[in-house]
């Protein structure tokens, strides 16, 4: 494998890792928004019990279960992101990895090989390796 190919595949894999983080934030957005909606429901019930039925009804009507984007709840935003962008990105990255025999993180493995201190504890090649390098 030539160095430029390994670097290019590594950059695309790194980009996918960034997309994975963004996807995680999108799931956090989904979970947090859903949690907030259930808290709004609790607030509505408490306002009704406290004698504020008009305000409780307004909040329930205008906010409870409201779309976060036109026509979309958060689960639909997540689904659209995955179907429109994430799945395509992941598939292209996997296909591009064929240039490195399907192996992920070839660039990082080379960095590890060059940067580690042979024979030093904590610098083993693999997890099951003993303290003696071969």
Task: Explain what the structure shows.
This protein has four helices and no strands. The protein has 134 residues and is mostly helical. Helix 1 (3-49) runs antiparallel to helix 2 (53-62) and helix 1 packs antiparallel against helix 3. The chain is elongated and about 75 Å long.
Q: Outline the biggest β-sheet.
A: none
Judged by helices, strands and strand pairing, the structural class is mainly alpha
How helical, in percent, are the residues? 55-70%
The SSE string, one letter per element, is HHHH
The whole-number mean of residue pLDDT values reads 93
End-to-end distance: 24 Å
How many beta-strand runs? 0
The low-confidence runs, each spanning 5 or more residues with pLDDT under 50, are: none
Number of helices: 4
Shape category: elongated
Rg from alpha-carbon coordinates: 25 Å
Beta-strand content bin: under 5%
Q: How is the topology of this model organized?
A:
Layout: H1 3-49, H2 53-62, H3 74-96, H4 106-115
Helix pairs in contact: 1-2, 1-3
């Amino acid at each position: 494998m030539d160095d430029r190919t390994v670097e290019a595949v590594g950059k695309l894999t790194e980009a996918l890792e960034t997309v994975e983080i963004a996807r995680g934030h999108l799931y956090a957005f989904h979970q947090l928004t859903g949690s907030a909606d259930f808290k709004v429901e609790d607030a509505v019930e408490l306002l009704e019990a406290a004698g504020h039925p008009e305000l409780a009804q307004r909040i329930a009507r205008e906010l409870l279960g409201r779309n976060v984007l036109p026509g979309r709840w958060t689960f639909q935003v997540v689904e659209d992101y995955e179907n429109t962008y994430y799945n395509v990105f992941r598939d292209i990255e996997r296909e591009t990895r064929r240039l490195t025999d399907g192996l992920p993180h070839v660039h990082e493995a080379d960095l590890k090989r060059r940067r580690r201190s042979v024979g030093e504890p904590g610098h083993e090649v693999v997890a099951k390796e003993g303290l003696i390098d071969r």
